[in-house]
Amino acid sequence: MPVRPAVTEAELEAHLHGICFKTGPPRRIGVEIEFLVHDARNPRCPVEPDRLHEAADALRALPLRSLLTFEPGGQLELSSQPATSLTECIESMTADLALVRPAMLARGLGMAGHGHNPWHPPRRVLTDPRYNAMEAYFDRWGSAGRSMMCATASVQVCVDAGYDEPGPLGHGRRWLLAHLLGAVLAAAFANSPTSEGCPTGYRTTRQLIWSQLDPDRTLAPPLGPDPRTAWARYVLDAPVMCIRTDDGPWDAPEGLTFRDWVRTGVPRPPTQEDLDYHLTTLFPPVRPRGHLELRMIDAQSGDAGWVVPLAVTAALFDDPEAAERAYRTVKALAETAGPRPAPRNPLWRRAARGGLTDPELHAAAVACFAAAEEALPRLGASPEVRAAVAGFTERYVARGRCPADDHLDALYTAESDDLIPGKDSQ
């Protein structure tokens, strides 16, 4: 495995400062969409690995603009190229999905938008060294790691970091906005209330799972006036999940932080390439990758369910007026959040459990969605996109509901019908 020369701690800190927050005018938008792959005739039937591998080979032959990958449990992910407008991003992803869905259906496979697999327990189908090491690492904290790897799916929205200067589009403001607005987005788009057919007590079980994992790589770094320094410290102080080798398992000594690895050079001196790989094993709710990757939104149901969270998030980050209104709205949530980092603080826990039944989150969502709806015409959003956002707002946000409530209603209705004597014969 080719590697670059070993580097110093100071060089690595400078590297992190340079690559993780690339500032400038917000011009680009991106989206990463994950789907749970299931048998088209019987979603409750697990798909055999051979069928998934065959489908993957067929999809990779398609002329897609998005990056196609598969997650450890067989979840399909499409990652768009950075787009210069919301419209371009939506059109590009829509075109790719128009190729992917028929190719999957031709092989008897469907693609479902749920934040957590509602049908069966997690089962890993990919056996790459990365995922072997990841499973072994997360097993130290219990079963949540396997659920995260193999049974969850999301809509991840990527926005530019913003300007160096203060103001509604400054990177410091956007960093704070992402962590407070993130709880509102998690609540509004909560779509994973069940596991193996049973309610979990949470509107977004996916967020519950993330809150149960290794805190050193899944919690948000401390929020403050200097996101770059806080992030660099967070990265270097996070434990090393795996050390890549040409042969043998990718094990890492338990408790070894990347900073320790640099200082000791054991089991071998790390390189900048090792640091770049280490970054891919960190999973905070907002991950800076030059841009900001918002990771808290559950996968959404329907062929175009992903469009609404993308459009709302883009409007609240990239329209200056909407960004200012959103920031003023969610700033008041900081008191509820308290000093603990997301997603383990009270604000995020309330979002995960209650969705928009929480009065404070409901009021914030109403204000933020209103700001987004007003901003979308200024961003050039099509009438169809604006109608989709308005429909979601009316169906869910205005009523203090989220998509998870539909699933719970259907589940409880089915259970009630089963208790009615003679119901099946009527």
**SSE topology string:** HEHEEHEHHEHEEHHHHHEEHHHHHHH
Largest sheet: 7 strands, antiparallel
Write down how many β-strands occur, each being a DSSP E stretch of 2 or more residues: 9
Q: Report the mean per-residue pLDDT as an integer.
A: 95
- Output the radius of gyration: 21 Å
Percent of residues in helices: 40-55%
The end-to-end distance, rounded to whole angstroms, is 67 Å
Outline: globular
Please tally the helical runs, counting DSSP H or I stretches of 4 or more residues.
18
User: What share of residues are in beta strands?
Assistant: 5-15%
Oligomerization category of the chains in this entry: single chain
Structural class, by secondary structure, is alpha+beta
Would you identify the regions where 5 or more consecutive residues have pLDDT less than 50?
none
Structure write-up:
The chain is built from 18 helices and nine strands. It is an alpha+beta fold and 426 residues long. It is globular and about 60 Å long.
Present the secondary structure layout.
Layout lengths: L8 H12 L8 E11 L9 H12 L6 E4 L5 E4 L6 H20 L3 E4 L16 H10 L5 H8 L2 E7 L10 H18 L5 E2 L2 E2 L5 H6 L4 H4 L8 H11 L20 H7 L7 H8 L6 E3 L2 E8 L8 H12 L1 H12 L2 H4 L8 H9 L4 H17 L7 H13 L7 H17 L7
Antiparallel strand pairs: 1-3, 1-4, 1-5, 2-3, 5-9, 6-7, 8-9
Helix pairs in contact: 1-9, 4-5, 6-13, 6-15, 6-16, 12-13, 12-16, 12-17, 13-16
